[in-house]
Amino acid sequence: MHKSITSRYFYSTAVLLLCSIAVMGFAQMYMFIGYYRNENNDKLLATIDSTIALMKEFGMTDDMDLSDDTSMTLARSILLTSRVSGNTIYLTDPYGCILRASTDDESEYVGRSISQRAMSAAYATGSYTELGTLGGLFPSRNYVAVRPVFSSSGQLTGFVAASIDASNLNEFLANIFSVLVLSAGLMLMVSSVLSILLSARMIMPLRRMAEAAKKFGAGDFTVRVSEDGDEELNQLSKVFNNMAENLEKIDVSRRSFMGNIAHELRTPMTSIKGFVDGMLDGTIPPESRDHYLAIVSQECGRLTRLIKNMLDITKLEAGEYKVNATNYDVWETITAAVFAAEQRIEEKNIQLSGFAPVKTVVFADADLVFQVVANLLDNAIKFCPEEGEIRFSVTQEKGVVTISVRNTGQGISADALPFVFERFYKEDKSRGLNAAGSGLGLHICKVLVNLSGGRIWVESREGEYCQFFFTLPAAQKNTRQNGEKAAR
Q1: Cβ distance 436 to 444 under 8 Å?
Q2: Residue from 28, 10, 24, 144 nearest 87 by CA
Q3: Is the overall model pTM greater than 0.85, yes or no?
Q4: Which residues are paired to 459 by β-bridges?
Q5: Is 421 in contact with 456 (CB distance < 8 Å)?
Q6: Separation of alpha carbons 330 and 454, rounded Å
Q7: pLDDT given for residue 392 in this prediction
Q8: What's the first-to-final CA gap in the chain, in angstroms?
């Protein structure tokens, strides 16, 4: 079962918090232990120094004979020092054997010896400290400090040791641990509330997107999500809304496309059926059948062109066509397109201008360019009036060749210019509803020009002219003439 973002956020926060508390706790405990140890060592050494100072006052540093009355006075002074400092003081001979101990029952320690390691280290460095039992002298760990005692002549006469029970350290660490556990519990409680609130705030936009996505799945592409919140979520919301807008446009385009297809197919099929039924039931007399059969043939041709254009668009937009671009003279294509439409041009007595071929080499697929020029020329012939003019233009600048086809006539209204390259678009006001057209020719031109690496646009002035432009890459050097350039 998948975990929610809230639970993951909470677990992540809890683990991070616990790890942070653990690291902080161990670091603090280590620092406290070091501080506590240094503090006790300093106190023990200060106690030892006070004891040695007393011994010097009583003249006991030259001779560790502790059996006379002077030694008893010293012992009482040492006992008083021990009680004031809270430490236990031990006096030993040069061999580490304990002679005096500031305890209520010194017999427990008198006659026992401190560790050889402690004596050696104290003699060598002047002092020795440890957290231990001093060679088994104590039943539990103690903080211990040892200093040597020297006579006025520099001879070792004994050692002074001081100790304090380390059990209070364990109690201190236990208190620290309790505080850390309590702090961890309180912090976890607070963090759980904060993580729930913060995660709920963070995932709210995601939930809105999920709801919007469900509506998309149900076919409603009008829903949008709010573009507020944190920067990352705001960017995601913008991308999501852009996607929704594109999906809505695609859906509208699809519905329009299907409606246009149905309309374009229904019109010629209705005509065909009507004429054929008229011939079958005798409504159309035998002497008129050839005329109406010619109309039926024209409508069948219209259906064939429509279906071919639809298949071409599907193939081109699916990326199935591979562009075979080569260097060639674009005027060859223009000339071939003009010769193919020569009869229609002559029937309308259209004048051609600008048709003065000058070798202009482009890098493109000749078949694609021919289809573009043929479609634009066909469009110009349809809407050019009797004895009108069609003008060609080919210019080259900065590695780009621009081809234009201009025809006189009614032109295109300014409102319609942005839509002329859309599927099935026909402008009835300015150009008339031409029954032979499917509204796909200019859209195919746009797709073909894009595949060729150029762009296409139109300029028009109502009542005067309409001019289509498209660009192609100029000839490229060191290009294999059999180039296999994949469709962009």
Answers
A1: no
A2: 144
A3: no
A4: 467
A5: yes
A6: 14
A7: 95
A8: 44
Distance, CA of 307 to CA of 312 (rounded, Å)? 9
The pLDDT value given to residue 361: 93
> Phi, psi (5° rounding) for residue 87?
-110, 165
pLDDT beneath 70: ranges in the chain: 1-6, 62-72, 229-230, 253-254, 256-261, 263-264, 267, 302, 305-306, 309-310, 312-321, 423-439, 478-488
Q: What single-letter DSSP state applies at residue 145?
A: E
Nearest one of 353, 356, 368, 361 to 396, comparing CA atoms: 361
- Taking the C-alpha atoms of residue 100 and residue 54, their distance in angstroms, rounded to an integer, is 14
Query: What pLDDT score does 380 carry?
Result: 92
* Contacts with 120 (C-beta within 8 Å, 6 or more apart), sequence order: none
Q: How confident is the model at residue 214, as a pLDDT?
A: 84
* Residues contacting 12, CB < 8 A, separation 6+: none
Report the pLDDT value the prediction gives residue 431, as an integer from 0 to 100. Answer: 38
Burial label for 83, CB within 10 Å (0-12, 13-18, 19+), is exposed
Neighbours of 373 (CB within 10 A): 25
**How far is the C-alpha of 309 from the C-alpha of 82, rounded, in Å?**
111
State how far the Cα of 250 lies from the Cα of 30, in Å rounded to an integer: 67
Q: Residue 168 has which token pair?
A: 């209070």
Q: Where are the alpha helices (DSSP H) in 152-288?
A: 167-217, 231-280
In which element (H, E) is residue 465 found?
Answer: strand 465-473
Beta 389-397 vs 351-353: how paired, if at all?
parallel
pLDDT, position 253: 66
Residue with tokens 């960017």: 235
Tokens of 473: 């890459």
Q: How confident is the model at residue 179, as a pLDDT?
A: 80
- Count of residues making up the chain: 488
Residue pair 430/389 in contact by the 8 Å Cβ criterion: no
Spatial distance between the Cα atoms of 19 and 337, rounded to a whole number of angstroms: 79
Q: Give the tokens for residue 109.
A: 């320690």
Q: How far apart are CA 406 and CA 268, in angstroms?
A: 30
Task: Give the strand pairing for 361-364 and 326-329.
Answer: antiparallel
What 3 state SS string does 81-129 have? HHHHHCCEEEEECCCCEEEEECCCCHHHCCCCECCHHHHHHHHHHCCEE
Do 262 and 271 touch, CB atoms closer than 8 A? no
pLDDT at 7: 72
Short-list 193, 173, 181, CA closest to 22: 181
Q: What is the CA radius of gyration of the chain?
A: 52
